[in-house]
Amino acid sequence: MAKIICVLYPDPIDSYPPNYAREQIPKIEKYPDGSSVPTPSQIDFKPGELLGCVSGELGLRKFLEDKGHTFIVTSDKEGPDSVFEKELADADIVISQPFWPAYLTEERIAKAKKLKLAITAGIGSDHVDLQSAAKNDITVAEVTYSNSISVSEHVVMMVLSLVRNYIPSYEWVIKKGWNIADCVERSYDLEGMSVGTVAGGRIAQAVLKRLKPFDVKLHYTDRHRLPEKVEKELGLTFHENVESLVAACDIISIHCPLTPETENLFNEKLINKMKRGSYIINTARGKICDKDAIVKACESGQLAAYAGDVWFPQPAPADHPWRTMPHHGMTPHISGTSLSAQARYAAGTREILECWLDGRPIRDEYLIVANGDLAGVGKHSYTVGNTTGGSEGVK
Ligand code: NDP
Predict the structure, then answer these.
(1) Which residue's CA lies nearest to atom 46 of ligand 1?
(2) What is the pLDDT of residue 395?
(3) With respect to CATH, is domain 3-144+337-376+386-393 assigned 3.20.20.140?
């Protein structure tokens, strides 16, 4: 029998379950590329329920306990005295979400002698030291595509919020003002601007597709160029490198994974190659942007504004400068954990567990590391290495 430790974000401060705003969510049958949404044998939750917090348990307890497995769910994940670190010692499987990541560093992997499977309930497994996982024959899997569209919608919201100066205008309403000039002194139309994505993957393509009707000029860069048909349909300009992309665009949205290659990609040097008054949206990973360079650029006006939902570490400390820098539109890491997304990645996590526990293969598109090497989606999109550095100091 397996011992499974699942690290989830804390419950809502008011109560669980919450008072839901809607009775149901639309049923999505397929992803935009035609691939199927998760197909576990069954689910023990109602789609639309809050599953990603401790009491939600990703809807997995009944399934796992009926089979005799031990299932431990906690949000206590930092430091040697945390429930996570203590239970990890004899755990066979770890489940974690990028929103509240259980950092699986080399040191933690060394202590987890029985660990064989690390599941990311969502997308983005950079909280796992992939090099160490490969070395120790730990399979790493994530629920590819489960929340890609959710993130792309958040990006569209943030692009419009920044360009049209929505948040400060909203604040004037709360302050009981009618300060039109204060609201519009930084407000522009998106129409005609050049928007570029770093990467041309699932989220990037969904963002580009959703922004096309705004009559913007669309650009992207990626390690592999998209098929000509896709470029034509969306009217995309391809850039060989990120330097060329940022110089051509007014708005940059980042959608590559965090790998040793992309860590700190947006440093002062690259930001200074952007047009003055550009916007950056980062829903990929906090560490892709140099924390201090972003603050400096928002203060100097090199960036008109910065928004996103990814930080390092997570949860972000109270004194993280992105909370207080000027002209930001940050949210906590929420774009990929809407109730709609949770239903898909909870089902996908169950599908992965069912396969693993029955000795059946996990879908290739869910694999990041397997048999000591990058595999599946991981082989295409990731670079082997470690990006968990700095998480050890998190308390
Ligand atoms: P995909 O795997 O579909 O896309 C990732 C793309 O990044 C691939 O096209 C890959 O290129 C490209 N890429 C990799 N390295 C580079 C590089 N150095 N420069 C340019 N492009 C690069 O993943 P998704 O679009 O679904 O997700 C992307 C990322 O978004 C995730 O890795 C995760 O970090 C983040 N994410 C955030 C969420 C949130 O809640 N904020 C939720 C979900 C994901 P190629 O394959 O051609 O090599």
Answers:
(1) 381
(2) 44
(3) no
